[in-house]
Amino acid sequence: MESAPKFKPLMIVVAVVGVAYPFAVYFGLQLFSPLVIALALISFLIVRILSSWREKKQVRELVALSLTLSCVVLLSFVDQLLAIKSYPVALSLSLASLFTYSLLNPPSMIERFARMVEPNLNEQGVRYTRKVTMVWIGFFICNAVVSFGTAVYGDLEVWTFYNGFLSYVCVGGLMGVEFIVRQFVKKHHRGDQA
Known about the structure:
Layout: H1 9-31, H2 34-54, H3 59-78, H4 80-85, H5 87-104, H6 109-117, H7 123-153, H8 156-193
Helix pairs in contact: 1-2, 1-8, 2-3, 3-5, 5-7, 6-7, 7-8
């Protein structure tokens, strides 16, 4: 019998840092230099990589974290403010990569989530989850482009507003729309079987 996944303190810290990151940068820059914040971000990413390695996470997660770390370190030599503003871009591109990888090596990411609720997902459900995975890939790429635009062309307030608020509203909106579409798809599928 499989046990329920355990929530570890590091998972909670990672989630909180991810959500609060733009605001931490915004307020942190009032007190510290971009270099100090860049070093804090680099340290955080190193801790995540070491923790993932210790917990024997899948290679693709380690690769995504390592690429994110490499991006931040390289940008830190060029422009520390851009380096710390690049984290949401790298995160979105990493998620797009993970979702794309899952399409090429099934089950798709959304299918994995769906099977947590409905273990006996039928073939139509598998096709639907593949399409939803593609939608999320498109979303993450678009989010990375907009986030990049706010990092390069926007001021700190615009960057913080988009990456700390508006992008989460977009995620919630996409989840809500997908939930509604899923209900119609399920209803239509039940009607076909009648």
